Amino acid sequence: MRSIPSLVAAFGALTASASAYALQGAPASDNTARINALVQKLKTSDVGERFAAVLALKKMGPDATAAIPALADVSKNDPEPEIRELARKCIDVDALAQKLKSSHVGERFAAVLALRKMGPDARAAIPVLADMSKNDPEPEIRESAKKCLDVVREPIFVPFLQSKEAKEASEKEHQRQAVEKFRRAVEKQIKEASEKEEEEEPDNHYGIVTIHNKTEVAINYSYRVGEGAWRQATINPGERDYYWHEYDFVNENASPPFEIRFDSDLGPGVAWRTYALDRCAAPRVDPELGRDYDFIKHAGADLIDIYGR
Predict the structure, then answer these.
(1) I need a labelling partner for 205 at 20 to 30 A (CA). Which of 98, 165, 172, 295 fits?
(2) How many whole angstroms separate alpha carbon 62 and alpha carbon 276?
(3) In the chain, how long is the greatest CA-to-CA distance?
(4) Gyration radius (Cα) of the chain, Å
(5) How far apart, in whole angstroms, are the C-alpha atoms of residue 216 and residue 222?
(6) Are 257 and 225 in contact (CB under 8 A)?
(7) DSSP tag of 104
């Protein structure tokens, strides 16, 4: 179970600086390790972590080029619309189009893959992709560019063009909603953790035994604790007596023996019985929490005995 302080700290870390994820697990100079760590964060089930990872990659700018395929996938498939939108804004289609002209085979292939995952959002790269599908020296890349064109050329409906100010306001609102959603998730986890802690078993401080008189006569008996002196007691019909021992330390769950002695013959005869009774560990002194024993009269005879439940 995650502790309440750790949940609060996680939320504070997000709202303070989402880019802190870029430094997790790798030196600041090692972009490859930083990007790999952030790409793994994009796959987590935690909404806040995915949102923070996309923000961190966005802040890295061109240094995060290697993460473009993963961002393209997030822009299409993440279940949260705010995260999909933010991931789309992280991808520079013009920069990817320039990568298509690279002399490095791996860079060209990665750029095609990223543009294909973007779908119609990568329409600005169609001219370069068309040229690549015909003229790239690598047949595999030419074929990949053709498939990419089929995906990118799919019709896209744009209901209206937003102004720059409107787009910026929309992006801020999406970020605000994502942070608010994460805040609510953290508060829910904090509440659940608190409730779970309250439901957990409390510490035990006492050992308790509870004696009930289920007969119709008053019963005299003696009891002692450990090697102590015997003491006299009387319990009336329908009543209960209880005895407790306080532990030397929390959850000790061990007490000195508790013995009881009584005459089981209600007639003129004498039939002494002696028993060692068990206790129940309890967090407080309460007869309801003790180990229950009942004095019971035998049917058809003037004899009593004590039985544990």
Answers:
(1) 295
(2) 80
(3) 119
(4) 38
(5) 19
(6) yes
(7) -
Where is the domain boundary, 137, 157, 188? 188
Residue range of the domain that includes 63: 4-188
Structure tokens belonging to residue 188: 């829910």
pLDDT tens series, the chain, 309 aa: 444 344 334 434 443 333 333 333 344 446 788 888 888 999 989 888 898 888 888 888 767 777 877 888 888 889 998 888 888 888 777 778 888 888 888 888 888 888 887 788 788 889 989 999 999 999 998 998 999 888 888 655 444 445 566 677 777 887 888 888 888 888 888 888 777 766 666 889 999 999 999 999 999 999 999 999 999 999 999 999 999 999 999 999 999 999 999 999 998 889 999 999 999 999 999 999 999 999 999 988 889 999 999
Whether the full predicted model's pTM is greater than 0.90, yes or no, is: no
Pairing of strands 206-213, 291-297: parallel
Whether 201 maps to a domain, the answer reads: no
Q: Note whether 39 and 151 are same-domain residues.
A: yes
